Amino acid sequence: MRRDRFKINNATGLREIKQDLRDMLKEKHTLALDALEEVADYIYQEAFARVPVKTGELQDSIQVDVSRSPRYPGIIATAEAHNPNTGYDYAFIQEVNESYHHDIGQAHYLEEPFREAVQAFFAKMGW
Prior knowledge:
Layout: H1 12-28, H2 33-50, H3 57-61, E1 63-67, E2 74-78, H4 91-96, H5 111-125
Antiparallel strand pairs: 1-2
């Protein structure tokens, strides 16, 4: 399945920050690939550290890559994990549900590091 069709991409905050980055990259007519690789690494490391952990499946599913497409520049950050009994992909609900309490991890495990990294990237690029 294409990663842009994963349910987690419906998380409002995550979708917004991805679009902000894409719009800025298009406006500036650059992919800034070297700097984006650093952004992707930061997002991955921080998301891995912040993801709610029970079995480790969700943590192991995190993927963060730089899109080299001139039409859709930016970062692709996804996660998916399925309940073995029901097949339900619980990555999205773990991302957005702030009422869940975990001994390890938090809600917005992808959005927060994504937002931090993009803000730092914009500052670095002088945008």
